[in-house]
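Page 47, continued from p. 46.
Same chain as before, 330 aa.
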Amino acid sequence: MATAAPAATATPTETAAAGPSDAPATGAIPLTGAAPVTGAAPAIGTTLVIGATGTTGSRIAARLAAAGHAVRAAGRKAAPVAGAEPARFDWYDPGTHPAALDGIDRVYVIPPVGDPDPATVVLPFLRRARAAGVRRAVLLSASSIPEGGPAVGQVHGALPGIFDEWAVLRPSWFMQNFTGDHPHATGIRTEGLIRTATGTGRVGFVDADDIAAVAFHALTDDRAPDTDLVLTGPEALAYDDIARVITETTGRPVTHRPLSYEELRDRLATQMPEEFAALLAGMDRAIAEGAEDRVTDTVPRLTGRPAGSFRALAERELSHHLAYLGRPGA
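Result:
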């Protein structure tokens, strides 16, 4: 499957409900290619980062703290995050929301992972946030989900009517889907396989470090973007290309195994509700039809530096680890 975290079984989540991937991150997050703070507001109020231990949330919290901004790190377990104040937060427990929002000026919003209708819980929270004095909201969505579309697309459509200062980040599929605990990464480690229904379709895979860099600017710059931002890496790659790059950088043979839409849907349906499995399999089918074959200039335009390549990420995060593990199945 092409999706990221929450999506499929694991991941875009911290991830947007049905988008690229934001699974919980592990270990310290280095500020790779940290976004320049030029243009950032010198003094803003506390930023609430929802999903602050996830793939993008952890990176955003680290960037904000490193720049001297006050951060409240929200999550179901209120896990400690370096440089941030922990806060318990559960989308499905409104009783945790008032304390998390107390004294907050801006918020980074990651909808609940795997929920096909996140607007039901996210929109009441956003309205409460605005009433509590939150001025700016930055929402994590996905390149595959347009404003007013399914799942988080409904939240996207409503956001400008709630906040005067806002942004919607619509990243393509995460490069980190091939690392950590995402199903793709597991398949690479254990079988040397990546399974998708994308055929030869290409994707502008994006590094989570670049998503965090853009989010940092969207949260801290004097003027909010007040638009949606489609984020990609510097090139569009097919899953065959991904497998080739991993093989070349690690010396470990990895192959892309194409599935039909029905095969992927049925495979995912053993791990999640059928409705969500069909949605995710449909995203792969859209990739096969060319929906994600694009590259944008958003990352370099907002951060002032080039977007990271998948080869660079593979060399940084995969080469030593996979080489140590040896051949799959060995």
